[in-house]
Amino acid sequence: MLIAEILVFAPVDRSLFYGIPEALRLILFPGSLVNVILGKTKKIGLVIAVREVDPQTLHYTLKPIISSIYDIPITDGILIQLYFWIAKYYICDLFSVIDRAIPSVIRRNISLKLTAYLQLSMDLDESIDGKKLPKQWEAFEFLKKNPFILKSEFLKQFSRNILDALLRKNIVYETFRREERIAYTHPDLINPRKRSIQLTPEQLGIVASVGESLGQKIFRVHLLYGVTGSGKTEVYIELIRRVIGEGGSVLYLLPELALTAQIVEKIRSRLEGLSPWVWHSGLSDGERRDTWLAALNQPSMIVVGARSAVFLPLNNLRLVIVDEEHESAYKQGETPRYNGRDVAIYRAKLHNATCLLGSATPSLESIFNTKFKNYKLESLNHRIDHRQLPRVHVVDMRYEPKGINAILSRLLLRKMEERLEKKEQIILFLNRRGYATTVLCRSCDFIASCPHCSLPLTFHRTLNQLICHFCSHQEPPQMKCPRCGSPEILYSGIGIQRVEQVVQSCFKGAHIARIDSDIMGKKHEFIHILNDFRSGKIDILVGTQMIAKGLDFPNVTLVGLINADGSLNQQDFRANERTFQLLVQVAGRAGRGERLGEVVLQTHIPGNETIFLAKDTNFEEFIAKELELRERFRYPPYRHIINCTISGNSALRAELFAKRSFVGGLSELFKEDCSAIEIRGPMISPIEKIQDRYRYAVLIFTPNVSKICEKINDFRKKITVPADIALSIDVDALDFM
Predict the structure, then answer these.
(1) Using CA atoms, how far apart are residues 340 and 332, in angstroms rounded to an integer?
(2) Phi-psi bin for 717: left (phi > 0), alpha (psi -120 to 50), beta?
(3) Can you tell me the distance from the alpha carbon of 423 to that of 537, in angstroms, rounded to the nearest whole number?
(4) CA–CA separation, 655 vs 650, rounded Å?
(5) What is the tens place of the pLDDT at every residue in 594-606?
(6) What is the pTM of this model?
(7) What would the pLDDT profile of 38-65 be if each residue is shown by its tens digit?
(8) CATH superfamily ID and name for 387-432+494-630
(9) How far from chain centre, in Å, is Cα 610?
(10) Is the dihedral of CA 70, 72, 78, 84 positive or negative?
(11) Does residue 179 surpass a pLDDT of 70?
(12) CATH topology of domain 2-108
């Protein structure tokens, strides 16, 4: 008897067995999607194994598989191994992994895109009398000149009735062709300028080093550290050329959807005839389905995508590129809380492929791995053509005059005037959405806060709404204080919309555009803005973290960092690292062309060591000091942190469960191996309440996650969690809020 082991897309914590009907024996393999019955409900399942068993050894009757959704497997054995590894390492159920890895659009098997054409019949059964039927005769003459034409083009000139008459007379017949829905065929992208680039000796050296690993077909991780503007992307493209030329596939991961258009355009301009496929959540269902099927069927391809692209079933995967590898955007925010960078590395290992991590500000974990593990460090120490790094001016905002325009320092205003006179472009950066971050009453100190979260509401001027950035609660701003009735309402704290307003008032003749997540919902709007900026139609670009990395505009000669020390105030041991990375990355947008760039860095703490080192782009000294500090306190990368969040509608019940059941049970579990873990907490989370749920944190420190994750996972499955309590486990956590 042939049976299948299946992971059902339902919250079941183990695989189930089903019988394989005779009609499906030849088409079911590991990786196949099938319809099954679970209880009394029809569910979709993923086949992970097929085996022959003796029916007499079975102690129960197996339900049969109902049907197969596709005629071929939609994933493969290596990816199934990856699913199991993620579930084990990140301490979660397999269901949550496959639910994230295989999107619903693939499970639904939406229809192919078919385009209708009209073709003139070779055997005409009937002629047309032009005098009696002049319109049909005119259409017939048109088709003789266009014997194979899009149906939509025909209907632009002739009516549906005329077409129906021609179809009935067999003068023309309708045919269909499958059209692949390829993303990023926007008019601004489909015809990029073809350019050939001569690589520098530094770049060629790195291509040779990574190429050696590719040639040996061994798993190896290379970390490419290159200063901003040093041409890391050109190194990637040359390696892509080699892999595709040898019939392999490439996975190119990006942390931000916003960077996709520029990378796709660069690849098309450098590699003539090669069009990369794209994968991220911003695509249509049809575009994602066709990309997945292309990955299944094409022997060699390149995919540019966000972290979820790591699950695409690529054939002959030879190279995995993780650009801006330090970015926290690679970390999944919901279960399974995987890190796309680390999963990409493990997938490369499963394929014996080469993994190339790249950044101008690599993470401490990756630098640590080059020093104490087997990552190979590659360096690009100079900008292209030995262009100088931008000159950085630090402005102490404590000594700037107060007033409505105090957001921009006198130096920044003067520099902006100079650049605009020279027809050069400017980028202003502030990593805060909205207009004002706090709305308060001057009379009674009331602060407008979210009723569901312990956070102040942010005023968004363009929507005229107070918005919670955690639960999306919205309410209109009030003219009077709801507590004391005073009209003395103060909008304090600077958001990117306020920066935009101030710039517009100061430079009335300049063309200004804003980029933040509020405008990303409009399809192609981001591409429109970037193309207008590149073509010189926009003089000043203001934005949040979306413009902080990766973007390359040669005419940008001035960058202003409005609140450079903002991220230093976070309750996070990574605050220094994130601030350094952000400042260096944003500053690196200036002076990437032939003109020397300048950066104005506005801060209230100019003597801070992190700001001082970022000003000089002194990466080596920063890394040395930060690693020394982390080692002293035994923080990552010297130990791993597992952040466990317990939340509930009742603060008392959540605290009691965290203290007695969770921490008490863990302490008992590891009492004979105290060195394996250190438990801190439970403690109130930095954000105490989100969406009406009170939150407590338990931090687990361990030198080796792999040795303890299985025990914690077993403990997680056995512990009884009350219905009103939620437990979330985040391995190698990046967010502790």
Answers:
(1) 7
(2) alpha
(3) 11
(4) 9
(5) 788 899 999 999 8
(6) 0.87
(7) 988 999 999 999 988 877 677 778 899 9
(8) P-loop containing nucleotide triphosphate hydrolases (3.40.50.300)
(9) 27
(10) positive
(11) no
(12) GIY-YIG endonuclease (3.40.1440)
